[in-house]
Amino acid sequence: MTPTLVVAGTNSGVGKTTVAVGLMQMLRSLGLRVQPCKVGPDFLDPLQHERVCGVPSVNLDGWLMGRERCLAAFDNAVLENKADIAVVEGCMGLHDGRSGSSDDGSTAQVAKWLGSPVILVVDAWSLARSAAAMVHGYRTFDTEVNVAATVFNKVGGDSHGAWLCEAIEHCETTKDVKVLACLPSRKSIKIEERLLGLLPPSSSSLKDEGARLASLQDLFEEHFDLEAVRSLASRAYRAPPTSTPISQIPSPVSAALPPIVIAVARDDAFCFFYHENFAALRRAGATIEFFSPLNDALLPVDAAMLYIGGGYPELHAEALSKNTSMLGAVRAFSERGGFIWAECGGLMYLAQQLITRDRRSYDMCGVLSFDVTMTTRCAMGYCSASLTPQIAALLRLEASKARRCQQYHFSEPTLPGSGEPAVLVDAQGNGGGIRNVNPALNVEFEALVSNTKRAAPEGAHVGKATVATYCHFPLDDELANAFVGVARRATTIVSLVPSASEAATAILGDGFKTRVIGRSAYCDFPPNVSRLPVVSQSSLDLGEDMTGAEVEAKMREAKLKSRPSNNKPHVANIDFLRTHRPGFVVCQDSCPACGILEGTTHAALEAAGLDAGRALTLKPMTVAGALDSIMLLGQALGEAENARRCVDDLEQRLEAVASRVSSTNRPRVLGLESCAPLVASGQWLPDMRIRAGGVDALGDEPGAPARIVTIQEIAASQADIVIICCCGRTARGAAAEVDEHLLKVQSLFWDLPALKGKNSHPKIFVVDHNKFSRPGPRVVDGVETVAALLQIDDFSENLMRPELVGVLRLIVESNEAPRAWRWEPVISDDAGIALALDPDPLPLVTSSPRARCASVMVPMGDGGLVIFGGEDARGERLGDVWSLAAPIGEDCDASWEGWTCGKIHGEDVPTARSNHAAACCGDYLLVFGGWGDKGTNRELCAAPLASAELLHLKTRCWTHCSTTNENCTECEGPTCSRCSSEGPAPRGNPTLVYAPRLNAAILYGGWDGIDRLGDAWILSLDTWTWRELGGNGTGAVPVPAARTDHTAAIWRVDDIEELLVVFGGSTTAGASNDVWTLNSSSGDWAQIVVEDGPQPHPRTSHASAVAGQGADAVLVVVGGQDSSRGSGAVAILDDAWVLPLGPGKREWRRIEGWRGRYPMLRCRHTLNIVSDSNDLALAVVFGGWDGESVLDDHRSCFFASIDSTRHAVADREAAEEAWVRDLWTAQIPLTLSDLDAATLERARRSTLPLALAKALHRAACQEKPPRDTYVDPDTGYSVFTAACLKRRPCCGNGCRHCPWGHKNVKVQGEKRVESEKVDMEW
């Protein structure tokens, strides 16, 4: 066993961390590899250990982890770091743990488990001979604990030290306790503390830390008996482990799986982690990549999970808040459905705002709907947590199982705008979870007051997979595997193996549509697979009519060519891999003709900038190996249970075949996979023949390789049945090969018993290669086919066996020269078997529109909305029409109707398009511009669309819109030779609005594929003529810069005036945030200048709408992108802003109430304002792109109230100022100096117990606002008031003024009060 020492203290604060760290430093200076450990759940001491030892310190908590996990964690760390000695620092006092009745969770418990001697640290500042009595007590309290040595700390000098040693030596029970050192007190080695314990080492400079450690080493070298230390450590002993350490147990499954990246936040703000958690995640197959929320702009590439632990975000709140790029990246990750597990400080980071102790508030990620506020109240203790059904389903774990964890924090969730605690409290003081938040856990504290133990909802579950909690969990392997499983289920894959595509379809079901993003050209089954992009294909021209010899010749030729030119038989699309970055790529390493091999896949991945470890290589050689490959693929997909169910079904089918197989009468079966040359089929095919009830005629065993054979070997095989499956060939193609290369030229073949069947029915069969050459789920189909062929004697019957469909049998018409034969199906065409085709897993959605971006959504007269066109997740442009019924409130479900539309005879309408403009003009939907299937706004050479199209909303009939140009006085329409134009030029990304008082549509801006446009046009719907509005910027009147990707909405100023309001967009100077109005009657432009207050980011591809009319109108802006922030998801904005348009002071206001509640992170979306049945103004947001993908159905559409945005800025600011003031006033402790003279004098004269404390408590509760604490005049400690505790769930620790009847201090004669009646007198 590795030499081990446990450093324990008589109590907290005696200097055991100093002694432990000093020992580690001294031992390391001798060249020893030291493994540090810490008893208990503490995070800070291990940071000190890691700084000194250079390796992570391992937490050993008896209550949280139990004996086996503690010992496994210890053994794994010692083994991994090749430690020469281990130093374990205890927690609190030696025997302090979870309770007073046992050693559970104590240092003594861990010391006994490790069999390690204990060094007891004693604060000797005010001790002499009594020190021996103290050591005696600790040594005899539990004789199973080996208190073998002591260190006296804070010794007054040599004489004091001698006195202490003499006392130990002359006590019968302590005389063999070795005094290792008598340490004097030195300030230079002291480690500073704060609320959560010692300061982390990163809080002080490296120079100061180095000086402290050097001073510590000098002290220990001067005073410690080093040889005694090493001798003592060698006395550690425990029985050999009953099981192998986890790190020594091979994990072939996780080792074979592609790595999954878990991004862990780790820096000065987030530094609280259990090292064993990382080890558990790595054992589960994860690759840990650290990132810094303080310093990094982006998350690690390909992160499939974010793990954000605890720390000190409150100390770094300003820096975290300023790193808006990272805040946006985390928020985007959550809104995309990425898996986030956030503990304590992580929960604080995901909140809307973090409010620190100095009354400052800082924006955080905004994923959660509440703020987090620092308080003086500590919530701490061991607890047990069970998962809510939603989290249990996410992790695929049992919901009822209690998992041990702990909490320690000085913050609490608070309501935005009020600062009040957000946790609900019932009349008995039970917590009810965070207001308006789905809880993640049900947590029960190990309370000091036993009758307060009860489970309460805790934490938050947001969106698809974001989990935030105050609990810190030590991960066991079950929980670590669950984390990795969720992460794996978020990855996409490319399948370059047909059998893997078939298996993935069976495992994933409907999930196949989003998980599998590419294939090889050979992947063609089930039918939906062929819709995927081809990522790999053969570089050779291999036709289905080629023989095996011709294929082999082609392969040899390619192999020779590959030497100088590096050409490969199969090529991969490197650009696709680089762009889409699949989580893993499935390849094979069995047959170079069947697809891209492992080595080529590795090279392709590396050329795309991806790790070769992303290749998942399947190498099945038998039927059992094929089933194992399905299981391996299922584990890589995070769908092990689905894979197990699939394999169980296949195994049941194999068992059914086996039950029908004769154990004695087994025919000899010859299998060939090529006739030129003659090749005996190998690998899993011999196994298939044996499982089907036959004997391999050539004597090949399962897994034997395919091999070339001679006709003499075939003749000698005496095969009773011949089954020929030519690689890559259909049954008809294989029959032609048999005719040409066997039946016509090989007379010995005719002598096989298989050709001498009765009734002129030889048992020679050809089959399609798909059931036999693809070792996936269909390999069992092949076994069933072979079994059927072996079990049927008379093929003249009209067989009803579906497994024989597609099989051809040889019919010999004449055995005399010249021989005559033919091939016919075993199952005749009129057999009447109905074969069910695999359903297409990509049907058109009929209940809601396909997820899309760059569409249009405009209001109809009935309060509903109509949606047309856009671009789906595959980049396909759409031409469908949907209507959305008028919503009835914020929380209602979207009610969709897909329209079946007609068109005018002979017209090719509508044109599928995206990035177009549209407006409802009375009974018509007018559509203009955009990009069709022949062009895209991402290609400079593209041709944008021009001609307008109309949909009559009542008859739902499309037609072309014929217009003329009013600027041409003699316009002849589309063929006009005078103006050469119908009006506005073709363009994409314009805006179009309807001005009802003019009965006209106004078009502005856009992009023609080369230049941004700045022209404005009005189309009269009375005459259907275009007229250009406004100037071109050359005159004295200012006009907006030409732009694209902007927004425009109509503002009805009064009964006469209507203004077009334009916001943002892309100009030659970049993204903009300027606001302009265009008078629809005069054509005059005017800019709305907003100088005061906050400003929204410049943006493009956003959405906006005008809510209200006249002086009450406001401009609402949601989302968009700002490319100056970076590319991809980091550029996407997730904010919403309101600008009052009426007279008076105009100032932008951010809509804080939407943050964390609605998925606003999007661009290329659409927005409209409607009124629900209660005349509540609702913003309806639909579709969009989050920087990585088109928003799915879950996040695509939401309804949000905007009435709350119309409150005056001054009122909002005054309210915020008031609650912040009250919040911080409440947190100032009341002291005796705050009492009026009469109250103070009366309390001092009182003979009642604790009269001064009672007076302070009564006064604190009567303050406006009530104070949370007062300073106890006897102890100087802050004491929480009943007014504070009443607003929070009972902590179970028996607070002095507990309003729930659990006080730990009783006054004689005090009567218990009902929980709803707070006893202010105490």
From TrEMBL:
Q: Which Gene Ontology MF annotations are present?
A: ATP binding; cobyrinic acid a,c-diamide synthase activity
Pfam family for this entry, one: GATase_3
What CDD domains is this protein classified in?
CobB_N (cd05388)
The protein's required cofactor(s) are namely: Mg(2+)
InterPro entries (UniProt xref):
CbiA/CobB_synth, Class_I_gatase-like, CobQ/CobB/MinD/ParA_Nub-bd_dom, DUF5522, GATase_3, Kelch-typ_b-propeller, P-loop_NTPase
Domain annotation CobB/CobQ-like glutamine amidotransferase: ranges: 262-477
Keyword line: ATP-binding, Coiled coil, Glutamine amidotransferase, Ligase, Magnesium, Nucleotide-binding
Indicate yes or no for the key word Heme: no
Among SUPFAM superfamilies, the record links this protein to: Class I glutamine amidotransferase-like, Helical backbone' metal receptor, Kelch motif, P-loop containing nucleoside triphosphate hydrolases
Coiled-coil annotation reads 633-660
| Domain CobQ/CobB/MinD/ParA nucleotide binding as annotated: residue spans | 5-190
The reply to whether Ligase figures as a keyword in the UniProt entry is yes
In terms of PANTHER family, this protein maps to:
COBYRINATE A,C-DIAMIDE SYNTHASE (PTHR43873)
Protein name as catalogued: Cobyrinic acid a,c-diamide synthase
